[in-house]
Design a protein that fits this description.
Blueprint: H1 3-18, E1 20-28, E2 34-41, H2 48-65, E3 73-77, E4 98-107, E5 110-121, E6 124-131, E7 134-141, E8 145-150
Helix pairs in contact: 1-2
Length: 154
């Protein structure tokens, strides 16, 4: 089992304890390595206090089990306001959210659309977007979505 998979397994009870889920666990940096643990609540939100509490517990778990031999820094963070939606099944829980999608098959000559996620039904994703002064709806095939992320409304 790969080291990150072992860490995920080791950390899962802490995530359960605080009601968060792992978004991403990765090593960053060269000589000064950082173990970055991105977490979020079930609704996709995150707050600084929860990050700090989870960080403290993960440090305790790491100190007790000592699974990492080299020096590193632990960083527990939010995946960010414009986090990538890695699994499109997550769209089912994001109705009403502002998202950005990149399409493999253009919709009305557009390969990118940013707008509010209106509905997800079977393989159809509906996004309400602005086209100049008009609000329009794009009904997209889920398999045509090449990339999706949360977006910030400006």
């Amino acid at each position: 089992m790969e080291r990150t998979e072992k860490l995920k397994e080791l950390f899962q009870p802490v995530f359960d304890e605080f009601g968060v889920r792992l978004y991403e666990l990765k090593w960053i940096g060269g000589r000064d390595r950082t173990l970055q643990v991105a977490i979020m609540k079930e609704d996709g939100s995150m707050d600084l206090d929860t990050c700090a509490d989870v960080s403290e517990r993960l440090s305790e778990v790491l100190d007790a089990s000592d699974p990492i031999s080299e020096e590193y820094t632990l960083e527990v963070c939010s995946p960010g306001a414009e986090r990538e939606i890695k699994d499109l099944s997550e769209l089912d829980h994001l109705i009403g959210s502002y998202i950005h999608v990149r399409l493999s098959v253009p919709f009305k000559k557009m390969t990118e659309i940013t707008g509010e996620l209106v509905s997800v039904e079977d393989n159809q994703v509906t996004v309400s977007y602005r086209d100049k002064a008009a609000v329009r709806k794009a009904v997209l095939n889920r398999e045509d979505i090449e990339y999706a992320r949360m977006a910030v409304r400006i």
